[in-house]
Amino acid sequence: MAINRRQFLVQNLMTLASLTAASQSARSSAVRESGLSDIFKHDFALGTALSNRTLEGHDSAMLDLVAREFKAITAENAMKWEELHPADRQWNWDSIDRFVEFGKANDMLMAGHTLIWHHQIPDSVFFDRKGRANKRAISKTRLLARMKNHISTVVDRYKGAITLWDVVNEAVNYDHWRHSHWHSIIGPEYLDYAFRFTEEADPKAQLIYNDFSMTAVAKQDFIIEKIQAIRKRGVKIDGVGLQCHVLLDSDAPSIKALETTIIKYAQAGLRVHITELDVDVLPFDNKGSGADLLINREYSPERDPYRDGLPLAISSELANRYAELFRLFVKHKEHIDRVSFWCTSDDESWKNDWPVKGRKNYPLLFDRDRQAKQAYYALRNIKLD
Predict the structure, then answer these.
(1) Cα(325)–Cα(303) distance, rounded to whole angstroms?
(2) CA–CA separation, 111 vs 104, rounded Å?
(3) Which of 18-22, 212-216, 289-293 is most confident?
(4) Contact call for residues 344 and 65 (beta carbons, < 8 A)
């Protein structure tokens, strides 16, 4: 009887799963002695994102886990405009100050995420105060002044501590500019201004353009063309951030497509960062939509099949998928500066609420009890076997 690729993987990986699970307890002491970042220290910086819950709740257990396993950190949400700068003269520094303090104490590479994005930003940045019914966009000059003030204030405060910035996030919608308020008021040159303002605030910082679905050929061609044009105008852009939100129930993105993408950006003279890595184990019926937060699907039990726990076979598939990805990253380590997960344990993941709110997902290396999963050991074995 013919079987599909997924069935074949499940049948073969269940055996591997049993062997892996049996050996994990014996390895636990070794895990405590060296973190995952130590295993990959000669390849790239290995990082994770810190959630608001961790930063605001002073979650010492999570911070201890992060300090042991990783050498690079990103603030998942605390540095986004609506969190950090919700009103014209209001700044909420506490969470990011804690983020930086933690990073310094543990000698970590710190990435600032993100300075300019169309999402999670107050309407008041773009519109006057006449109310929603008849709000009016401000002028290009005023918006550029607000952009410069925001970037300069944030980057200057953390200059020398945060040495890497996701300057602009998700400005491209596949093969054209995203029609955001930034774009409609300033024009596509808003990227030039954002990167220029950031460089002026900290000339030594590494400056990144970050986006999802970067393996789509039309999108990567557009991004490379526009970045090269911006650089020719004397604006500094050091690299690209491939968010790398991966699906388990398909080949999206395939290893071949991801490899081609890494090489293509490197050949364009750009350093590559894997910035928001996770592997979604749940069904997803819009595989071409990347990480577009405007997508919102209705909940149904069929879309949430693992409420009672992740089956061993699926856990093994997850481990295999992560191992494939990391073999590729190690193969092209000369082009990759950083590989960073989008949070650390499954309970923290944004994938529990996107694209369907209230599901139970398992996309990361540590479970809800913060115990290492099969995927974690699969990554250790890449370098230790």
Answers:
(1) 25
(2) 12
(3) 212-216
(4) yes
pLDDT tens-place string over residues 280-302: 999 876 554 456 666 778 889 99
Active site residues per annotation: 170, 276
Domains and CATH numbers, the chain: 71-242 (3.20.20.80)
Please check whether residue 277 is in contact with residue 244, taking contact to mean a CB–CB distance below 8 angstroms. Answer: yes
What b/e readout covers 324-343, taking b as 16+ CB neighbours within 10 angstroms?
Answer: bbbebbbebeebbbbbbbbb
Query: Which pTM does this prediction carry?
Result: 0.89
Q: What number of CA atoms fall less than 13 Å from residue 145's CA on the CB side?
A: 6
Token couple for 163: 């040495």
Burial class (CB in 10 A: 0-12, 13-18, 19+), 300: exposed
Cα dist. 162→84, 166, 282, 294 in Å?
A: 16, 11, 34, 30
Q: Angle, to 10 degrees, between the axis of helix 374-384 and the axis of helix 312-331?
A: 40
In DSSP notation, 122-134 reads -GGGTB-SS-GGG
Per-residue tokens: 50 = 């810190």
